[in-house]
Amino acid sequence: MRLLDEDNHVSVFRKPSNYSNGNTFDFEGRQLSCEHDTRRVARYEHNGGVTVLADNWNGKPLNAPNDIVVHPDGGVWFTDPGYGIMSDYEGHKDTLQIKEAIYRIDPTSGKMEVVTDEGYQTERPLLLARLQKALCC
What we know:
Blueprint: E1 2-4, E2 9-11, E3 20-25, E4 31-35, E5 40-44, E6 50-54, E7 56-57, E8 60-61, E9 68-70, E10 76-80, E11 101-105, E12 112-116, H1 120-136
Antiparallel strand pairs: 1-2, 3-4, 4-5, 5-6, 7-8, 9-10, 10-11, 11-12
């Protein structure tokens, strides 16, 4: 859904939305979405195309990407918790095949790396808060 401030008009932004949860924009104005349904991080191009930035780790599907932020260096950081696939509410119920983790996609090579998969539930909010502070201050 989207709200247009000019006339308070509400309309469908993208269908299907693939249960997008975390959304942001890169420095070129392209939307980045964490999609629970497709278990991927996707970039929506200006020409209408879709570029999949990440959908697996070491050949196994991501859990349900959720939080996303673009660092000033162009790197894309995202979280991959399990709760998006723990029921059919936000995707399709499935079992976790990889540990919950925080990942970074390199802006030059496109390679993905694990930032951390230790203490995920306690570290996730702290890491995202530190990263957000670095982005805005």
